[in-house]
Specification:
Layout lengths: L2 H15 L1 H4 L15 E4 L5 E3 L7 E7 L4 H17 L4 E7 L3 H10 L6 E4 L4 H6 L6 E5 L5 E6 L3 H16 L5
Parallel strand pairs: 3-4, 4-5
Antiparallel strand pairs: 1-2, 3-6, 6-7
């Protein structure tokens, strides 16, 4: 094989491998960023996009059934959504369990009014830079991340409430 062909193949392999050889850290979504739009598919199979929620505050939480803190957080977030009204606040709970566990959870939580989606291969979590759960973001009415937290504790509830209230009070365009 001639040298030009070898160099071309090496370049192609490097291009295809992308981040693996770049030394770049995984994606991170920070306060002030416009987050990735796609949050998966809801219970009815419809794609859930943040951009379709224009003017609403969107709370995104990544969770799993084995996470005790997540099980505490979800009812609290449901209460927030009920209090604010779904026309102003949408909570999206992105499950990280395998598909069979997720389907069982949907049956168990059939009366929960949160939007539940599933991140089958971890694609959504990777786009958001999720490294631990629960991983929560509050996205303001302007479409930018207003608050971000990983983990959960009793003091977390007040911080989440303050962030949601602040985002609800903020103008839609700023």
């Amino acid at each position: 094989m001639n040298i030009a062909l070898r160099l071309g193949l090496i370049g192609l392999l490097l291009a295809l491998s992308g981040q693996a050889f770049s030394g770049q850290p995984p994606a991170r979504v920070s306060v002030g960023d416009i987050p990735p739009d796609d949050l998966g598919r809801g219970r009815n199979g419809d794609e859930f996009l943040i951009s379709a929620q224009h003017g609403k505050v969107v709370v995104v939480t990544f969770w799993a059934s084995w996470c005790g803190y997540c099980r505490k957080e979800l009812p609290m977030l449901g209460g927030l959504q009920d209090a604010a009204g779904r026309d102003r606040l949408e909570v999206v709970a992105i499950n990280q369990d395998d598909r069979d566990v997720y389907r069982a959870l949907l049956r168990k939580f059939k009366d929960v009014q949160l939007t539940m989606t599933h991140d089958a291969g971890g694609r959504i979590g990777a786009a958001y830079g999720v490294t631990g759960i629960p991983h929560l973001l509050v996205i303001g009415r302007n479409g930018k991340v207003a608050f971000k937290a990983t983990g959960y504790g009793e003091e977390s509830m007040q911080a989440i409430l303050d962030a949601v209230n602040g985002a609800l009070a903020g103008p839609a365009g700023s």
